Amino acid sequence: MVIKVFLASSSGSTAIKKKQQDVVGFLEALKVEYSQMDIACNEDNRMWMRENVPEEKKPSNGIPLPPQIFNEDGYCGDYETFFDAKEDNQVYAFLGLPPPPGSKKARVEEAEAEDEAEDEEAKGEDDQPVSEEEEELRQLEEEEDEAAEAEEEE
């Protein structure tokens, strides 16, 4: 997966320059691989970006401003949505990337995967799902056990 950041290398707007620097700097700090796609010097990049930003994300004049962020051909968002994701610690999800190994989110996902694997093992040696009859029988046995424990407590 290649993250593409569409930038303007020669922008007269200091606001756009700061936003571009913020995105690029943050991606570099996270060690996320990305490609800078210059729309100022390359007409193909400019046209591709304009055509692939979803209509609902384009400004009223219809021309999206840089930086615009894509994962391959999938649109991630503009600076504002990137900033919101950064503030919410959701940059990897925003970019459509898995969390880095060792991160808190990655550990949670690993634990969930382990739980799912244990659940699969608990279904039985033959990996066949438990039938409805077997499930009903198990529930009846649990209810009987609970009733017996309640009687013992009384």
Give the helices and strands as they follow along the chain.
EHEHEEHHHH
Mean pLDDT: 86
Choose one word for the global shape.
elongated
Helix content: 40-55%
Regions with pLDDT < 50 over 5+ consecutive residues? none
Number of helices: 6
By DSSP, the count of extended strands is: 4
Radius of gyration over C-alpha positions, nearest whole angstrom:
26 Å
Strand content: 5-15%
Structural class: alpha+beta
Q: Would you mind describing this structure in some detail?
A:
This protein has six helices and four strands, in the order βαβαββαααα. It has helices spanning about 15-30, 45-50, 80-85, 90-95, 105-120, 130-154, and strands at about 5, 35-40, 70, 75-80. The termini are far apart. The chain is an alpha+beta fold and about 150 residues long.
Name its key features.
four-stranded mixed β-sheet; 154 residues; alpha+beta; elongated
Summarize, please.
With 154 residues, the chain is an alpha+beta fold. Helix content is 53%, strand content 12%. Strand 3 and strand 4 form a beta hairpin.
